[in-house]
Write a structure and sequence with these properties.
Radius of gyration: 13 Å
Largest sheet: 4 strands, antiparallel
Number of strands: 4
Strand order of the largest sheet: 1-2-3-4
Distance between the termini: 37 Å
Number of domains: 1
Structural class: alpha+beta
Shape: globular
Order of helices and strands: EEEEH
Helix content: 10-25%
Length: 71
Amino acid sequence: MRNAELSGAQWCKSSYSGDNAGECIEVAPGFPGLVPVRDSKDPHGPALLFPAAAWDSFITAIRGDEFPAEG
């Protein structure tokens, strides 16, 4: 899938982004089997495409606090 095919995507900002405009990601639902992800500071830049199962595993790990916090 190319970025041109994402031009009509409805992007959603992460609920964990808060008011800090500097560290936000957005995801675009509605792409069966894929989860497009982009940097909210660069809406016309590239998007990463993750298989839905890999994204689900990542979110589960985040919610399970499986990643060390920054120092």
